[in-house]
Design goal:
Layout: H1 3-28, H2 37-47, H3 54-65, H4 70-91, E1 101-102, E2 105-106, H5 108-111, H6 114-133, H7 141-155, H8 160-169, H9 177-202, H10 208-234, H11 237-240, H12 246-249, H13 255-277, H14 287-298
Antiparallel strand pairs: 1-2
């Protein structure tokens, strides 16, 4: 299959998966009457109606690669999207990045208020683990536990949250390249790596194929972040769906500030190739994942 055909197949797979993930999220967050209805409304606002669903798509696609149930994979996808949505809600708060725009519309704390946004983020985080540990996600309690443990590691102090702390502490001072790499491997890369690994966990894969998927996820996550740094410097707010140029305005060290735009683009391409190389032992069933490695560095939002 030619590269163009791979790209076309990826777009079709992404569109199909995004629709299914959206429906799954919708079913897992039903509106309820009462004084707490505003909490569900804010959770739904944050989790539905936008985003690339890259993390959820990875879980679904890797699960498919290993022959796991699509329905189970969609629940895992919804779980990781809950976790991701919570991180964005909190990231946008005035005490963090203080951003009024997310996915082309007002941030959750602007649409509601800060207190409701914080609580909606908290509830989305706990809902992520509730979904994973529900027997409906998988009949094997060990697989459910492994999914939850891996997500906790990826999203906690040694992963996403720890990376966010390094990011905050690094504002206004120059970080060396190795520290920027560590920051983003934790803040962004860990959750993307988990999303890929989750598909293998769901399928019960424990051999070198799972290691290959973890390597793929690591490189993909870093490539995604490098491309994000480039976009923050080159794309408009309309393209991004969020405020452009925030990193530079906040005095953050990025791949662009350290390598320049051309150097950062080259780094993203190198990481994309490493992600593709990690899939060398897989047959054509992994072509969508290979195309995804190209997509993350070519996208405009």
């Amino acid at each position: 299959m030619s590269p163009n055909n791979h790209s076309s197949a990826l777009k079709e797979s992404l569109s199909h998966a995004c629709s299914d993930i959206e429906q799954t999220i919708d079913s897992l967050l039903p509106m309820v009457p009462g004084d707490d209805a505003i909490l569900l409304e804010a959770m739904r606002y944050a989790a539905l109606g936008g985003g690339k669903r890259l993390r959820g798509f990875l879980a679904v696609e890797v699960a498919s690669l290993f022959g796991a149930s699509r329905q189970s994979a969609l629940r895992v996808a919804a779980s990781v999207e809950f976790l991701h949505a919570y991180s964005l809600v909190h990231d946008d708060l005035p005490s963090m990045d203080d951003d009024d725009l997310r996915r082309g519309r007002p941030s959750t704390h602007r649409q509601f208020n800060e207190a409701i946004a914080i609580l909606a983020g908290d509830a989305l985080q706990t809902s992520a683990f509730e979904v994973l540990l529900d027997p409906e996600t998988h009949s094997d309690p060990l697989i459910r536990a492994n999914l939850a443990l891996a997500l906790a590691k990826a999203s906690g102090s040694a992963g996403m949250v720890g990376g966010q702390v390094i990011d905050i502490q690094g504002e206004g001072r120059a970080l060396p390249l190795n520290e920027v790499r560590r920051l983003h491997a934790m803040k962004t890369g860990a959750l993307i790596r988990y999303s890929a690994e989750a598909g293998a966990i769901l399928a019960g894969v424990t051999d070198e194929r799972r290691d290959a998927i973890i390597s793929y996820g690591n490189n993909l996550g870093t490539a995604f972040q490098v491309a994000d740094d480039v976009l923050d410097s080159t794309a408009s707010a309309e393209e991004l769906g969020k405020t452009a140029g925030k990193d530079e305005a906040n005095g953050k060290s990025t791949y662009v500030s350290l390598l320049g735009i051309d150097g950062a683009k080259a780094e993203a391409r190198r990481l994309s190739e490493q992600a593709r190389d990690a899939l060398s032992s897989f047959n054509e069933k992994a072509n969508t994942l290979r195309a995804l490695a190209d997509y993350v560095v070519e996208r405009r939002n």
